Amino acid sequence: MKKTELRTKYKALRNSLSETEIDEMSLAIANKILTLPIWEKTYFHIFLPITEHKEVNTEFILHILSGKDKDIIISKVDFMTQKMTHFLLTDNTVIKKNKYNIPEPVDGIEVPSNKIDVVVVPLLTFDKKGHRVGYGKGFYDDFLTQCKPDVVKIGLSFFEPEELITDIFEGDVKLDFCVTPDSVHSF
Fold first, then answer.
1. Which of 33, 42, 75, 89 has the fewest CB atoms within 10 Å, measured from its CB?
2. Which sites bind ATP (predicted)?
3. 43 is in an annotated binding site
């Protein structure tokens, strides 16, 4: 299927989920992440969910990262430049939703992309080859190309993979793993 069709399909599927289902599946995803070979790494970039879009609730993963004393990085998006700036999440970080309801840090200690070891990537769906469909703005593809070559890219999905996304572009960055409530897919 093409990305536009997949976006429509998976937005509808996510919209059909209740808050309880989202929390239960998000917790299952967080527990599956514990099985990944990433825990010797230090700098973990994670997205804060847009609850209005019924994204995976990453709060459970944040608790795991915090409990393992990892450095957690979150981003702020500049829609004018189409760039993301990354900040260390600390006890003093003030989070505010932007006009698109994306929770973002107001400011803080900036972290360069090339210092990040693991990136937890938001998505709508993915395929069996590790390609993902996001919202179509290319923020994460651009960001991931600025990371070090061995950065570990982990997608989170409530749903199992599609067979194949048919309109992959050269600039699309593949995932290394995608975690669902029932399985861990490795690419």
1. 42
2. 3-7, 132-140
3. no
Encode burial over 101-121: b for 16+ CB neighbours within 10 A, e otherwise.
ebebbeebeebebeebbbbbb
- Contact yes or no for 114/157 (Cβ under 8 A): no
- In the structure encoding, which two tokens stand for residue 2, read together? 């093409």
Q: Which residue has the tokens 């990305």?
A: 3
- Helices (H) and strands (E) counted in the chain, each on its own, are 4, 11
| CA distances for 96 relative to 7, 101, 102, 130, angstroms | 26, 9, 8, 32
174: domain CATH number?
3.40.50.10420
136 among annotated binding-site residues: yes
Q: Is 139 annotated as a binding residue?
A: yes
Per-residue pLDDT tens digits for 144-165: 999 999 999 999 999 999 999 9
Give me the residue label for tokens 């048919």. 166
Domain count, the chain: 1
Domain interval for residue 40:
3-186
